[in-house]
Amino acid sequence: MSTAPGKSKPQKITSLADLKRVKADIEAQAQRAAALAAQQAVEAKLRMAQSNLFQAAVGAVKPLPEKRRAQLAPAPPLPIPKQQQRDEAAALVESLSDEVDVSSLLDTDDHLSFRRPGVGPDVAQKLRKGKWSIQKQIDLHGLRSDEAREVLGQFIRDAHKQGMRCVRVVHGKGLGSPGKTPVLKEKVHRWLVQKSEVVAFVQAPPAQGGAGALVVLLQPLRLG
């Protein structure tokens, strides 16, 4: 019966001397195995040290570009909406005061009206007669003063940018206010006078709101 390759033939133990010899062989094999393991550990540490030294010497690396791959330029940044930014900045800067005294700016005709310096009195007459048809309107009923001021300012800006010439502003007659004083009506007068887009305004005819509304003429839109 043959033995497997790499394995020594079993030794027959017939005496104490044979037993000591087998013990010595086993200890020698254990010492050789320990020495081999220690040598392998030292070699592994050496390889690791050499690898770290190489990486430290080379530093960070980048993959070479593949010749068959197209090098695309980065996407250009989105265009900046400059006009929108200007409009928003103008809206923030704009501040319509409630303290402006407009008594000297209003014409003391039958219903009070306003027109910019240099604008003839016939403009107010044409507004009352419906020379310009009303293209858009806003109703400020139920809004607090601060809300009404902001909403009215935005309404006038938008209407002017859309090229509209004549709009109606409904402010109410103030019958529901304390003391039935038309507080919002007077404030709307002040706010409109401060709007550069406004050329003139008159009290609306009875069929269009009478004392509770204004017909407002806007500056023509300048193109370019």
Automatic annotation (TrEMBL):
The organism's place on the tree of life at top rank: Bacteria
Signal peptide: none
UniProt cross-references to SMART domains, sorted A to Z: SMR (SM00463)
Smr domain sequence ranges: 138-219
Annotated protein name in UniProt: DNA mismatch repair protein MutS
